[in-house]
Amino acid sequence: MDLHPFRHINPGVGGEKLEITTRDLALVTIFTSLYAALVYIFAPISFFELQFRIAGVIRPGIAKKWILVIGYALGVVIGNLFSPFVGVYELLFMPTMSLVAGLLGYFVAKKFRNSYFVSGAVIATVISLSVSWMLLQLFELPIIATLPYLFISEQIVCLLGSVIFKAIETRVKWWQET
Fold it and tell me: Could you report the per-residue pLDDT of 98-146, keeping only the tens digit for each?
C-alpha cells in the first residue's frame, strides 16, 4: 500500500505504515459474518437477561490477530440488529464494549504468548460486566442478580472457543500468511 508521494508515513500511527493485507480483510469479513450469523441462528438464547451467546466461541481467536477486534465489533452491531431490544445500548454501547474487550483481550493475551484461553477469559469478563450493566439500565435488573450467570456462561463459551481454536491450530496456523 503506497502512500501519497508527499506523505511517506501515516500520521498518528507512530510513523509506521499500517498495512492491512487482503488476507486480514478476508479474516475480518469472515469473523464479522460468522459472529452475526451465529447470533441470528441462536437468537432465542442470544438475547434477554439469561443469554448464552454461542457466537462468542470465535472471540478467543482475537488472541492471534488484533484486527479481528474490528470484525468482532461489526459482528456485534449486525447481530444486535436482530435483538428484541434494538437501540442505543445494543447498537452503540455493546459494540464499543466489544471493541474495548477485544483489544484488552488481545494485549493481555500477547503477554501470555497470544493464549486463546487468556484472551477469551479477559473478553468474557469485560462482556459479562458490560451486559450486566446494560441490563441494569434497560430493565433495572440488579447486577448482583445477572452478573454471576452471565460471567459463567461467557467463560464457558470462550473456554469452548479456546479449545476449538487450539485444536485447529494443531493442523493449521490460520492467522499466519502462507
Answer: 999 999 999 999 999 999 999 999 999 999 999 999 999 999 999 999 9
Calpha distance 77→90 (Å, rounded): 7
AA letter at 125: T
Which of 80, 96, 8 minimizes the C-alpha distance to 39? Answer: 80
Distances, alpha carbon 134 to alpha carbons 63, 114, 160, in Å: 26, 30, 25
Per-residue pLDDT tens over the stretch 165-177? 999 999 999 998 7
Q: What's the burial of 164, exposed, middle or buried (CB within 10 Å: 0-12/13-18/19+)?
A: middle
- Sign of CA pseudo-dihedral 165, 166, 172, 173: positive
What domains can you pick out in the chain, each with its CATH number? Answer: 22-169 (1.10.1760)
Give me the sign of the Cα torsion angle 150, 152, 157, 158.
positive
Cβ-contact 145, 136 below 8 angstroms: no
Amino acid 142 reads P
